[in-house]
């Protein structure tokens, strides 16, 4: 794969930025503007996931000024379908997936492409993110990471939460998405399986520069208790898809299932749904009894048992 870039000017490498959006007209301009100002941006593909606000008007105004913008529309089908749709229409060497309410920092793409000057075989380049809580205004900068030269080790590190990935932080070779797709049947944490598979299939490299601002909302889809309950565990089968994951790595599935239950316990606990939170905590312990040694989770579980609202189910 790397031979394609040997002797090639890095400024000629093209990038497609894909932005799925559903009713984000009020902040979408921020993401679009941050994408258009990047070097190497060949196209900005915006997938309108059946928005009912004035998303179309916002995008139309940008299209009149810049022909790099491609506007795709679909019936409301969820972010996984929207991202897959955008990826099918991408034509560049690399792709960057950006959430509609986030924004790239100046020079983000340029910083992400720099490692190719040293190693043209890189397929996944990851930067740091800055997170802003829209309610409290709290600011948090993601620490830089180190990846192994072994793809399997990176996969294992990811499912064990030793390394992480999120939209807006990475450039990935477009060809990787010929075999990796977002699971369209999952409506919560649908990106986790894609991240896991990217680490398994791509030669990865991490840079120290911050490349994206991510705005966290207290009412975000990921923290909707109904979606957590209905789709949360589907992520396990998506990550350990036998058509993608080698048989030798399937031994990690049970532990990942337990860890996933703990994550759902924590999310439901925060949502105030103590009843379902406790159910997933028990599932985690049954799958992997060593999970009881994770004191922070145990403390929350005991606290929820003593809570007057332990039988209350959130909406």
Give the fraction of residues assigned to helices. 25-40%
Low-confidence sequence ranges: none
SS content category: alpha/beta
How many domains, in number, for the residues? 2
CATH superfamily membership of the largest domain? Spore Coat Polysaccharide Biosynthesis Protein SpsA, Chain A
For the secondary structure, the number of strands is 9
| Number of distinct helices | 11
Q: Spell out the helices and strands N to C.
A: EHEHEHEEHEEHEHEHHHHH
Mean pLDDT: 92
At the first level of CATH, the class of the largest domain is Alpha Beta
Which geometry do the CA atoms define?
globular
Instruction: Round the Cα radius of gyration to an integer and report it.
Output: 20 Å
| Beta-strand fraction estimate | 15-25%
From the N-terminal CA to the C-terminal CA, the straight-line distance is 49 Å
Architecture of the largest domain in CATH? Alpha-Beta Complex
Q: What is the CATH topology of the largest domain? A: Spore Coat Polysaccharide Biosynthesis Protein SpsA, Chain A
Q: Largest sheet, if any?
A: 9 strands, mixed
Summarize the structure.
The chain has eleven helices and nine strands. With 315 residues, the chain is an alpha/beta fold.
């Amino acid at each position: 794969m790397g031979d394609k870039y040997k002797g090639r000017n890095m400024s000629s490498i093209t990038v497609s930025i894909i932005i799925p959006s559903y009713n984000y007209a009020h902040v979408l301009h921020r993401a679009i503007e941050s994408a258009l100002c990047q070097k190497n941006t060949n196209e900005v593909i915006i997938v309108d996931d059946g928005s009912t606000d004035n998303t179309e008007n916002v995008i139309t105004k940008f299209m009149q000024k810049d022909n790099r913008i491609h506007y795709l529309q679909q019936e409301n089908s969820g972010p996984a379908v929207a991202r897959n749709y955008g990826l099918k229409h991408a034509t560049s060497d690399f792709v960057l997936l950006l959430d509609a309410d986030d924004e790239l920092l100046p020079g983000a793409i340029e910083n992400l492409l720099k490692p190719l000057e040293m190693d043209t075989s890189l397929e996944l380049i990851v930067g740091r993110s800055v997170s802003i809580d829209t309610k409290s205004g709290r600011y948090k900068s993601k620490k830089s990471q180190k990846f192994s030269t072994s793809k399997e080790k990176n996969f294992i590190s990811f499912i064990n939460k030793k390394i992480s990935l999120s939209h807006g932080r990475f450039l990935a070779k477009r060809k990787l998405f010929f075999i990796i797709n977002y699971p369209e049947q999952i409506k919560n944490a649908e990106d986790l399986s894609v991240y896991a598979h990217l680490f398994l299939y791509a030669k990865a490299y991490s840079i120290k520069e911050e490349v994206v601002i991510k705005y966290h909302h207290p009412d975000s889809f990921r923290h909707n208790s109904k979606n957590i309950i209905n789709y949360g565990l589907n992520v396990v089968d998506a990550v350990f898809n036998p058509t993608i994951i080698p048989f030798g790595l399937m031994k990690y599935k049970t532990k990942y299932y337990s860890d996933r239950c703990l994550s759902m316990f924590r999310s439901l606990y925060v949502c105030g749904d103590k009843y379902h939170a406790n159910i997933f905590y028990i599932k985690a312990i049954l799958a992997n009894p060593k999970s009881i040694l994770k004191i922070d989770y145990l403390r929350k579980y005991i606290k929820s048992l003593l809570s007057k609202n332990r039988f209350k189910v959130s909406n």
